[in-house]
Amino acid sequence: MNGINLKIKDFIKKTKINLNKKYNIMILQSSENKLSFIVNTMISIGFEHKGGSYVLHKLAYELAEYGHNVYVFNEPFYPHNNITVIPTKRHPIGDGWKSNFEWEIFSYNPNKTVSILPQTTFGNPFNTIHNVRWILHHTTQQQLDTFGDDDLIYKIAEFEIPIDYVPKDLITLDYNINKFSNLNQTTRAGFCHIIHKNTPDWGKEFLDKFNSKDLSDWNDKGGLEYLNTELNKYEYMLTFDDKTYLTTISALCGTKAIILNEDKLLTPYQYRQLHPIQMYGVAYGLTNITWANNTINMVENHLIELEKNDKETVKEFVKYWENKLL
């Protein structure tokens, strides 16, 4: 318990808590055979439809399935009896995605608690000893400089990271296989597009050449169900984002995805080797459409196999921490 008390004292000192005021301090549970995992889901507050939000909450669920205590900072996307919410308020900064957060004070056993922090988390906000930095996107040197020397680094996919080794995989994609399907529309034709990450300044004008239907507001118009219906109307879906699951969602609907503005130094084969989720039903560039046409029917079975492999990465992750801390 002395370790816990020291952590509380450190927290009080850093946050300048008024010791004359009464606070309800939440206690994170751990035991002889159970760990506490803190999954920093704060970046998903207000951005519930983003891919990074889903994978953070999916990881929380997968960890809970192993019987450990898991703590998140907003309502879980995948509820589980072993998941507890730490009440949190988001204070947006301007009109962008940056925010400050205010969460309920909590204490924990430092020897049995692991924080899992996306790469956008600067520093060690929970003052935990055992920390995992989870790379969900390209990582800058500025972000890396705030990581602890002993922090472990895992990645969900291949991203640019200014380190001289390859981090281990930790993959928790929700493939939504049961939510998206090819409705075999006989009237399927033409192009649609989704404006997402990496869209260049000239992107929208370029899309006009295809007379393409904009589905970028899918989340506001009905979410995944709406997206499934709309994608089934078109032959091709255009995007400039080479690292989005929206391409695979499109392929599940029978709509071939085309990634535009591709890296000229990568061949389509090399790209697919780096991003196996994009293996089938996805064209890496306009000259690769034949591949997407010929492989569109292979998507679902491929994703089922990937899901099995993903679960193995979580299994190895849990095994590591159980061996280290229990």
Helix/strand/pairing category: alpha/beta
* Cα-atom radius of gyration: 22 Å
Proportion in helices: 25-40%
The number of E-state strands comes to: 16
Strand order of the largest sheet: 4-3-2-8-9-10-11
Overall average pLDDT: 89
Q: Which H/E pattern describes the elements?
A: HEEHEEEEEEEHEEEHEHEHEHEHH
Strand content is: 15-25%
Number of helices: 9
Distance between the termini: 16 Å
Q: Could you describe the largest sheet, including whether it forms a barrel?
A: 7 strands, parallel
What does this entry look like structurally?
By secondary structure, this protein is an alpha/beta fold. The chain has two domains: 2-174; 191-304, no CATH class. Helix content is 29%, strand content 18%. The chain contains nine helices and 16 strands. The chain has helices at 2-15, 51-65, 141-144, 203-208, 223-231, 246-252, 268-274, 289-295, 299-325; strands at 26-27, 36-39, 69-72, 83-85, 88-92, 99-103, 106-107, 113-118, 130-135, 152-155, 168-169, 191-193, 213-214, 236-239, 256-259, 282-284. The strands form four sheets. A seven-stranded parallel sheet has the order 4-3-2-8-9-10-11, with helices on one face. The chain has a five-stranded parallel sheet with strand order 13-12-14-15-16. Strands 1-7 form a two-stranded parallel ribbon. Helix 7 (268-274) links the parallel strand 15 (256-259) and strand 16. The longest helix is centred in the C-terminal third of the chain and has 27 residues, at 299-325. It is elongated, with a radius of gyration of 22 Å. Mean pLDDT is 89; it is low at 1-9 and 11-20.
